[in-house]
Amino acid sequence: MSDSSYDDELYDDGLNEEQFAERVDLELWKKLFVFTRPYRRELTMLISCGIATAIFEASFPLITREVIDDVAANGSQVNLWYYAGIYLGVIVLLGMSTLGFIYMAGKIHTYASHDIRRAGFANLQRLSFSYYDYRPVGWLMARMTSDCERLTDILAWGILDLFWGTSIMLAICIAMLIMDPLLGCVVMLVVPLLWWVSKYFQREILFSSRQIRRVNSEMTGAYNESIMGVRTTKAFVRESHNARDFGRLTGRMYQFSLRNALQSAVYLPLIMTLGSLATGLALVIGGMNMIAGTLTAGTLIAFINYTRQFFDPVEVLASWLAEMQMAQASAERVISLIEAKPDIEDSEAVLAGIASHHPVARDSELAVDGMEERIREIELRNVHFAYDPAEPVLKGINLKVSQGETIAIVGPTGGGKSTLVNIICRFYEPTSGEVLINGYDYRGRSLHWLQSSLGMVLQSAHIFSGTIRENIRYGRLNATDEEIEQAARVAGAHDIIMAKEHGYDATLGEGGQQLSSGEKQLVSFARAILADPQILVMDEATSSVDTVTEARIQKGLSHVLAGRIAFVIAHRLSTIRAADRILVIDGGEIIEQGDHATLLGHKGHYYELYTQQRIGTTTDRDSGWMPG
Length: 628
Description:
By secondary structure, the chain is an alpha/beta fold. Helices cover 59% and strands 10% of the residues. It is built from 19 helices and twelve strands. The strands form three sheets. The chain has a six-stranded mixed beta sheet with strand order 6-9-10-3-11-12. A four-stranded antiparallel beta sheet has the order 2-1-4-5, covered by helices on one side. Strands 7-8 form a two-stranded antiparallel ribbon. A hairpin with an 8-residue loop joins strand 1 and strand 2.
């Protein structure tokens, strides 16, 4: 496993590395702020509390100014209890507004995080197989975990900082200009310089942060694959090789993180230095005016406080802006996942039909213009397909299959067997040609209707964490316990399940680690039987089971296959002799087809494959698991 296997060039969603390097993309952030709209009341309260906090904070120097000037003018006659009461009142209100914005920001953070993750997960369920072809699990996990957490921090606390910071700066500017317009303008001369510094660092911080997020995705993907493949790694003693490759990734992360940290470390001190410069200007010019008698001591002290206070929100907003640059890389990736479109989806006409309950598009009642709900026939007309246009996988496939037929598909590895079945199941669509169901192009039918009519038993059966009963019930969620047990009996799994300590309620680990490969296959087979599909696909379904278990499966197959269209991909040719038709696929083309006896009589490619597989065996006792 090398770090190159996680190169983002393979799954970058078309994002150009420099696309957002010059500025914050407001349109991108608008799409994220949409997730706060359902919580307008909380958002309004958050903004109100932030503005109120800013006003209360800005009032302290004014109160201080009044106290100093009043004492200077009236000495001991000043009622200090009056000012103490005002201070206390402002402090209480400030505490209440601070409590309010912290509570509301926490709620918005939690709600938005929930909604973004839910939207991302829901879209992942809709996306086509092709989306996952070049995107490791770790790459997707990073978007829904660390990237999402970062964004919701910006959405909640960033909104607060924005309104609090701009409000307090506006209040301070107004107060300074009212107290002394000239001195106020001098202090605010520093603002353009602040803008220039921020503009420069925007680009630098954003670029390095995007590099960090990219390497982080690669690291997450590599880490996930290493854990998933730990048995293979140990079997081939590749621990040091994996550690070396992962070390290269962490080295790149160190390099980019150090650069990003240095940029942030320089950025904020520059802002603080400019703030100190403004304070110095206020002190020098204000001091000279005070000596000249044109400025009171209270006003000078208020100005000095305001210059320090003015640059506090500037520092916060600058920090928020820097964080926003870093988070924009996360925003790009999360939004790209949420907005990713399936390569295969229902046409506008089909969607309109579903919405209007038109019978052509309804999933449960297709019976107009000759289109019945029951699948009577599947036909492929001159079907071509290619994952890469330069490398065609299927070439001019013509095939017609009727209800009740069992079609076996054989041929060399890479010949296009699985691709052909995936096209029929509409996991992929042909690049040219047509797939007809009952004489109608299946692109004009509901995708959900077709795929809910499928049952699949794959070579590598996936078992979910949970109980055996829950895994079988996945085939039909409303199935009763009796129906689940009946499906297991037909699949030949019942006795093996009952031998477990808790039977059907035995808890399985992640990926069904408590089951052997053969037991997983039996559970997967029972799940497909329970689904009662119109189209059954078996991809090397018995490759992981022994001959005894295979014999158990044979007993129920006549019942399972009756009245269905079945596609069976097999390498062991002795197991598919009773199929109605056998297709030999090589180089993406059907080079032979017919039943077992006919193909043997032709003494062509199938004959050679079958003969080669029989070499070395002392007897051919396989009667074939297909019912005759």
